[in-house]
Amino acid sequence: MLQYDVRRIPVQRVILGLFLTANLFNASIAQAQGPFGGSFGDSDLLPAERAFTVSHPEANVIEISIADGTYLYDERTIVQDDAGAVLRTSRSVTEIYDDPLFGPTPIHRDKLRMVVTDAPTLMVLTFQGCADIGFCYPPQQTELSFSR
Fold it and tell me: Residue 25 class from Cβ within 10 Å (0-12 exposed, 13-18 middle, 19+ buried)?
C-alpha cells in the first residue's frame, strides 16, 4: 500500500503555482517583445529566405541577392559537390568589415556572384550572413541542380 506524506502536498501546490505563474509571466514578456527580443522590431529583421535569395541562372553560376541591411560572410560561403568536396569558385569583389567577433572580415553586400570551376550537375551551397542590427542568421544550406 502506498503512503503519501500529506504535509508535502500543500508545499508542492505552492511550488507548482509559483512555477506556473513565472512561466506565464515569461511567456507574456516574450510575446510582447517579439520573436527576437525587445531590440529587434518586426519590420527590422527579414527571414533568411528574404534576406538572401539564391538563384542558379547557368550551370556554373550561382547568384545570391543580399537584402539592404544584411551581408554575407565570404569565408562562410562554400559550394560543395554531392560527395562533400569543396568546389573552387571565382567570386564578386568583397569589402572588408570590422566584425566585432572576428575582426577585419571579407563580406558581400547587395549581390554575390560565384562562377564554379568544373561545376557538377548537383551542388550544395552553404552560407551565413548577418543583419546590420546585430542579428546573425544560422548557416543556411540549399541544394542546386542543373541538368545539362
Answer: exposed
